[in-house]
Design a protein that fits this description.
There is one protein chain. The chain is built from twelve helices and nine strands. The protein has helices at about 40-55, 75-85, 100-110, 115-130, 135-140, 145-155, 160-170, 175-180, 185-195, 200-215, 220-250, 275-285, and strands at about 1-5, 10-15, 20-25, 25-30, 60-65, 70-75, 90-95, 255-260, 265-270. The strands form two sheets. Strands 1, 2, 3, 4, 5, 6 and 7 form a seven-stranded mixed sheet that branches. A two-stranded antiparallel ribbon has the order 8-9. The chain is elongated and about 110 Å long. The chain starts with a strand and ends with a helix.
């Protein structure tokens, strides 16, 4: 038996590290595979190469039942082999648990440079969540800095629909990182739509986001402005009340107004003598 070390995990290879031919119908994908989209054109070229020269690097699998194997590494090669019409593929079988298999599949794929920006971010989040890692521990296993991991995870603040728009439009990580500075989802959608429709580059995107953020008043400023508006409206109401009382007095009605002002509210009490109102009514009649 041969022991193979992969980061913090130990895998036991099959006897003499032999390569075994396994039927493609007996191999299932790894649920922890972060890659969800496979480039069809690249798969086509790889399948042509496999049809011509065979699979040069065996797949790594683990046995999950008497009939079935799970891919630990090599799903892209398996897909291309199926396209090339192969019925069997060369595999190296390793003895490992489901948890170890998931960890290796995630780490192996996350160390590649061709993952989509959101596939990578979701894979890192899954790695941290599933294995209880800190960002620093995840960074060490992936050969990245802690700040790089933190920046990747911030991308997931964008909604899944926004992520799809960015992926489909071929925008870069820098485009996405500029957008997450906008907390208002409606405004962010408008900016993203403009970026895509006008094919803005990263510098133009940064400038647009800065313009949008500077044109929107800060929360403290909005609150302050609203308070001023409320105070102004109250003064108008108070003046209206005072004018109404003054008008009654000029008409000979001995109206009185009492104002009570405390921290919670302003209370006005207006007193109009009924006798005086009846006398004025009789005079009019």
């Amino acid at each position: 038996m041969l022991t193979s070390f992969r980061g913090d995990y130990v895998f036991i290879l099959n006897k003499e590290n032999k390569i075994t031919e396994i039927s493609v119908i007996r191999i299932r994908p790894n649920k922890s595979q972060p890659r969800k989209h496979f480039n069809e054109e690249e798969l086509h070229y790889l399948s042509e190469s496999i049809a011509e020269s065979g699979i040069l690097q065996p797949l790594t699998v683990r046995k999950v039942s008497s009939f079935e194997y799970e891919i630990v590494c090599g799903e892209r090669r398996l897909r291309a082999a199926v396209l090339a019409g192969l019925k069997k593929v060369p595999c190296v079988i390793i003895n490992c648990s489901e948890k170890e298999s998931a960890a290796f599949a995630l780490i192996e794929n996350l160390q590649r440079s061709d993952l989509g920006i959101f596939e990578e971010a979701r894979g890192i989040a899954r790695l941290i969540r599933r294995f209880g890692l800190t960002q620093s521990e995840a960074a060490a296993r992936l050969g990245k800095t802690q700040s790089a991991i933190a920046n990747k995870l911030r991308l997931l603040k964008l909604t899944y629909e926004e992520q799809e728009w960015i992926d489909n439009a071929g925008l870069s990580e820098r485009h996405a990182r500029a957008l997450i500075r906008i907390s208002n989802e409606k405004l962010r959608r408008e900016v993203l739509s403009k970026i895509i429709s006008e094919s803005l580059n990263t510098q133009q995107t940064d400038e647009l986001v800065n313009t949008m953020l500077n044109s929107c008043p800060k929360p403290a400023e909005r609150k302050k402005g609203n308070n001023k508006a409320v105070i102004k409206d109250v003064r108008i109401f108070v003046n209206t009340i005072n004018k109404a009382v003054d008008t009654m007095r000029l008409a000979g009605i001995d109206a009185k107004a009492e104002k009570l002002d405390n921290d919670s509210y302003i209370e006005y009490t207006i007193t109009i003598p009924k006798k005086q109102l009846s006398a004025d009514k009789n005079k009019t009649a």
